[in-house]
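WARN no homologs supplied; continuing
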Amino acid sequence: MKLKILVTSILISLALATPVVAYTKWQARILKRSKECFYCDLSNINLSDANYKKMDVTGSTLKNANFSGTNLEEANFTNTDLTGAKFDSANLQEANLQRSVLKSTNFWGANLQKANLRGADLTEAVFWNADLRGADCAT
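OK structure emitted
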């Protein structure tokens, strides 16, 4: 009986300790190869310190994604849910974030020069030390 309880406890602990990954491997593979993934769920994906210039993830869900230090120049995030995503020191120059959900998203030290943020939900987004020169932030 004690062994059964011990085994059950260990299995529950392992299940709770496993990191949450919402995306499927094929969606991540498609994005990494083609720099495109339309209407994909790529929540929790780590794309930090990479080059995704001109990436297009229109209509996708990228909640809690990590883009820290990534080159996303001219990337298209139109109608994308980026709630809780990290863009620390990322290059988003001329990126299109129009109508995206950017709740609690971190743009700490990011380059957002000439980025399109028109109609984006910026609730609790952090832009500390970000470069927003020429960015369109109209609602």
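Residues 2-17 form the longest helix (16 residues).
OK
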